[in-house]
Write a structure and sequence with these properties.
Blueprint (H helix, E strand, L loop, with lengths): L9 E6 L5 H14 L7 E5 L5 H17 L7 E4 L8 E7 L9 H9 L2 E9 L1 H8 L1 H6 L4
Parallel strand pairs: 1-5, 2-3, 2-4, 4-5
Amino acid sequence: MYSRGGNGPTVRFVGTSQDDALEAADDAVDGLLESGWEPRNVALLTTGHRHPVQVERTAFHDQEGYWRTYWDDDVFYGHVLGCKGLERRAVVLCLNEDGSRDRARERLYVGMSRATDELVVVGDPETVRRVAGNDVARRLGIG
């Protein structure tokens, strides 16, 4: 993964532990909504375990019905590997894993490329360094 600069969405990094990443990501979604983002323009994507809202929606609607919720007027909750090719104006990327599993770089890259206007990356700074390298960490504002 290489950070080449250029134009792209506004990016913020919220440092937290892996254990607290999901809660911090929920807080980031709340912050986006409080700042005026419409829920239909916001997605929360996880890199590790699925968000409880995604689990709940899948159980309630089945898999096909869950994917129809992508078009609802609500925040979309998904896993990055299921969201390849999909975009939202504002994305909160929750790094709720330590980055040691297969395809960790791919999950981080896919998640970081889903936002068109604003991206909030939430997770452990060391995970970002380990998975993406120092240049990407520096560009995210990680010291």
